[in-house]
Amino acid sequence: MSWGARVTGAALAAVVGAGACSSGRTREPVDDHGVGRIVAAAASDLAVFWAAELPRVGRGELGDAPPKPLLLRAGSSVRCDAASLTWADLRGNARYCPQRDQIVVDAQDLGPDLVRRFGPLALAAIVAHEYGHAVQRRLGTISLAPVVRELQADCLAGTWLGHVKAYPTPVFSATDDDLALPLVGVMSLRDSLGRDPSAPDAHGAGFDRLTAMLEGIDHGAGPCLDYGRGGPVLTGQAFLSDTDRANAGNQPLLRMLVSSAADLNDHYGQLARAAGGEWTDIALVPQATGGCGGDGQPTEEAPIVACDGGVVVAALDRLGPLASFGDMAVGAEVGRAWGAAALRLSLPALRLTPSSTAVECLTGYWIGTLHPSATNRAATRTLRLSPGDLDEVAAAILQGPRRPRPLDRLRALQNGFHAGLAGCRAAS
């Protein structure tokens, strides 16, 4: 996030490297040697799923399923359409070769790394993404603009994950909460920060990849297959300045707290005045560990708390786990405190029923007004999102200090970001 000098969002690589617990359970224990089994099981399940799903949504037949995915390791290579693809070329990735109708997976680095850090379903989700390209080839959408094609494949992968959640396959099963960590695994393969989303090899910002995956999880293949006619919304952005790029993302912690608080007072003040009301600025008080007294004690799960008397306390000693995701993860937490205060004060402009979902949606709405291309940003606002800021917020929700129902929180935040206050009202 930037304020005045406009510094950048932090690199997500440090974020997704932190956790090592698994999600998306398999029936058998998985170790580094289970990559082949996971890939084969996912491909088998995907063939059965798409053979039934395409006729169900009126898009014809799958026809012959793609052949079994090929696994590359050091020293191996495979023919990928008109060229030879070596493991060194593929390293850390997976690929679909459309002319050969062949999925290829790095089984030496990518596969074991995803399984170890994000669980077997993260690797299966990558296979599902590549299988999405095979579906595109059969539907004639493989020639979509590159980033749209990739996000459509993410959405189609999410469709299969939603099916796994509703109807466990012979190998995979997952609750909604179980999907959080595999989604972080997919997000870790986002475009580099500041990359032009129109680049020929663009795959999308992490936040956009999550949006696409959730759309497939929640709504099935239908919306995914309409991407060529109007979606998806892209949030990838260039760096705002050379300083933005050089600082690689983070304001100092205290500056982040102060700048977020100032912008939030501006934001809610504008909302109140537009509805003919008033807003009394809230004061942010950074303290080492202190809170409001009584039940208003900060924790690692909620290190910033709204107190009575128009005061929000930020417990600096408890911000570490959240701050490790980047400055905007902290900024979003400040936004939640302001949203909770606005709901508690029954700000007439909101017309929302107080709830944790409403707080998350209001936070997303505020963050949406900070995007450089936002249409609802007032001229007086000087805080701006930098590349990677949205990914920091999403990663902190999915992998950070634990709160209930991380995917529901992300859905609410994305709703506020994309649909604004009207979206929050519609969901309340």
Please provide a brief summary of the model.
With 428 residues, the chain is mainly alpha-helical.
What about the largest sheet? 3 strands, mixed
Radius of gyration: 22 Å
Give a count of the beta strands, DSSP E runs of length 2 or more: 12
Task: Give the strand order of the largest sheet, numbering strands 1, 2, ... along the chain.
Answer: 3-7-6
Helix count, DSSP H or I runs of 4 or more residues: 16
Measured between the Cα atoms of the first and last residue, the distance is 29 Å
Order of helices and strands: EHEHEEEHEEHHHEHHHHHEEEHHHEHH
Q: Structural class of the helices, strands and pairings? A: mainly alpha
Low-confidence stretches: 2-31
**Count of discrete domains:** 2
- Indicate the proportion of strand residues: 5-15%
**Helix fraction bin:** 40-55%
Written account of the structure:
By secondary structure, the protein is mostly helical. The chain folds into 2 domains: 13-229, no CATH class; 250-427, no CATH class. It contains 16 helices and 12 strands. The chain is elongated and about 65 Å long. It starts with a strand and ends with a helix. The relative contact order is 0.13. Residues 2-31 have low confidence and may be disordered.
Note the topology.
Elements: E1 2-3, H1 13-16, E2 25-26, H2 35-56, E3 70-72, E4 77-80, E5 83-86, H3 87-90, E6 94-97, E7 102-106, H4 110-118, H5 120-139, H6 146-166, E8 172-173, H7 180-187, H8 206-219, H9 221-225, H10 242-246, H11 253-274, E9 283-287, E10 304-307, E11 311-315, H12 320-323, H13 327-344, H14 356-368, E12 383-384, H15 389-399, H16 406-427
Parallel strand pairs: 3-7, 9-11
Antiparallel strand pairs: 1-12, 2-8, 4-5, 6-7, 10-11
